[in-house]
Write a structure and sequence with these properties.
Layout lengths: L4 H9 L14 H8 L2 H8 L6 H14 L2 H10 L6 H9 L3 H9 L14 H7 L3 H9 L8 E2 L5 E2 L1 H7 L3 H7 L9 H37 L18 E2 L2 E6 L2 E5 L7
Antiparallel strand pairs: 1-2, 3-4, 4-5
Helix pairs in contact: 1-3, 2-3, 2-4, 3-5, 4-5, 4-6, 6-7, 6-8, 7-9, 10-11
């Protein structure tokens, strides 16, 4: 990682294992590609001990880190390395130089990666209009259908509109067309929907709290209803039985009159 070429060369002469994992859990070739140390990477690759799988990982790492020179070294050593994941990673990390290099060396911006997205879709989804512009300048095709989560399909422009990616909509719209404000409207609608959902959840929470408070108050309710001498003729019905006040005593009338 420090780029000490002479030290690396000496260690290789002493039989250092190029596959051993270091502190960053990376092999020597991957660490060199990530750090951008071209001469060190060349020394490691010249041992002929690095297989294609490890080179492919180093290729992805170099594209993510913006190390165009390392991409060239790896391509020179092993022409035809897979470029879909490196391109998607370069787009995600805003590495315009690597995006341009990869497109010039055969990468397809419409190829689907491991996350079921293409580089074009990632650029639109993340609002990376700069990366989208780099790909459009490379004259990539943008008419491929985009598959949505619900299984429906749409064009890349329609997808940009649906998620409110205004800058990407402008780039994807045909020239000399009236600016499409559907993306801004879609974004505003999502904001309104979010606010409505928050208000609904807040209202539901208040209702739950009110019910809980009522139930708590109900636990303190005293079911004993006092009957005083103030109403000697009162004969209320309580819990299914009629009570009558007679001579300052409460008597239970009915079939259960033998109860005290």
């Amino acid at each position: 990682r420090a780029g000490k070429t002479e030290c690396v060369q000496k260690l290789l002469e002493l039989g250092a294992n190029v596959h051993a994992l270091g502190a960053g859990n990376d092999s020597a070739s991957i660490a060199a590609a990530e750090s951008g140390h071209l001469e060190v990477l060349k020394l490691i690759l010249e041992t002929n001990q690095v297989d294609e799988e490890e080179m492919s990982i180093a290729f992805v790492v170099a594209s993510s880190a913006g190390k165009v020179g390392c991409l060239q070294v790896l391509e020179d050593t092993k022409p035809g390395l897979p470029k879909t994941e490196p391109l998607i990673n370069a787009v995600e990390r805003n590495q315009g130089g690597c995006v341009q290099w990869l497109l010039e060396h055969g990468a397809d911006a419409n190829d689907i990666g491991s996350e079921n997205n293409s580089a074009l879709e990632v650029a639109v989804k993340e609002g990376l209009s700069g990366m989208l512009e780099v790909m459009l300048l490379a004259q990539v095709q943008t008419d491929r259908a985009v598959e949505l989560d619900d299984g429906e399909t749409c064009t890349l422009l329609e997808y940009a509109i649906s998620i409110g990616s205004t800058d990407c909509v402008k780039l994807l719209s045909p020239p000399d067309t009236v600016p499409d404000d559907r993306a801004e409207k879609s974004s505003a609608k999502r904001a309104r929907d979010d606010r409505a959902a928050e208000e609904e959840e807040s209202s539901a929470k208040r209702a739950r709290d009110d019910r809980a408070a009522e139930e708590e108050d109900g636990d303190d309710f005293d079911p004993i209803i006092p009957i005083t001498q103030a109403a000697p003729t009162l004969a209320p019905t309580i819990f299914g039985h009629t009570y009558v006040v007679e001579d300052e005593e409460i008597c239970l009338s009915g079939e259960d009159s033998d109860m005290e």
